[in-house]
Design a protein that fits this description.
Length: 94
């Protein structure tokens, strides 16, 4: 049992270190791209509005399309979602 817990603890530490190194590397690449002016892109998304009605009903309205700014990175940066994620989720609900 002690061996299992030691392996589990080591695995958890490795996962945490890999996650931190990945985020720091992504942040550094994003900062370099920001300096060059290539850190952001835009994606066209369809926007919908969900309105609550009486009787637990919902009304859905199509609001049109809009260009949304996104960060060219693995993780969201500077308040913008990652472009790879936004391109796969082009429908936004408000």
């Amino acid at each position: 049992m002690k061996r299992f817990l030691a392996i589990l603890e080591l695995t958890a530490k490795v996962v945490i270190v890999v996650a931190v190194v990945t985020w720091v590397t992504d942040w550094a690449v994003f900062r370099v791209r920001s300096a060059r002016g290539t850190a952001f892109d835009s994606v066209q998304v369809e926007e919908y509005l969900s309105t609550a009605l009486k009787g637990n009903k919902q009304e859905f309205d199509y609001m049109g399309t809009a260009q949304v700014s996104c960060a060219r990175a693995l993780f969201p940066h500077a308040g913008a979602p990652a472009c790879w994620w936004l391109r796969r989720h082009t429908t936004q609900w408000e």
